[in-house]
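Data availability (excerpt). The following record was deposited with the supplementary files.
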Amino acid sequence: MLQPGGVKQFGISLMQQLLPGVSAAVYFSMGNTGEWEYLGALSNAAPSAIFHSPWATKAGVTGASVTLGVSLESETTVANLASTVSSGQELSSIGEIARRIALHLTNYLSSFEGNHGFPIPSYLFVLPRAAIDQWMTKLETKLSRDPDYLFR
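Predicted structure:
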């Protein structure tokens, strides 16, 4: 059985048209907390979507259950949900992306540690001049092949 933390993305599609002015808001809840978090929405204009699983990066997901919920709500309500949630999620996801990029760079730079033939204090790295350019090129190549590379 697949654990919730192993689900990085999932898709949802409407099987029939919604009433005019109505959207299907998608929520998730972890475990038995009864707390629901808004993920996004489907509408007649956008009847399917692929969602990134926010629980995949949350602590304590191993062994926990995740429940998805769909609620039919007015387009106005969904638009308000989207605007209030996106600002906080953007900041947290930007922070997570920045953290993962910094971790990736740190791991890459640490590969240059070693015996260079002269004493180097432990708090310094000795790098070739092109190390950052090489790292960026490699990272861009990996991301072009797999946009979720940093989230694995």
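Summary of structural features: The helical segments are 75-110, 131-145.
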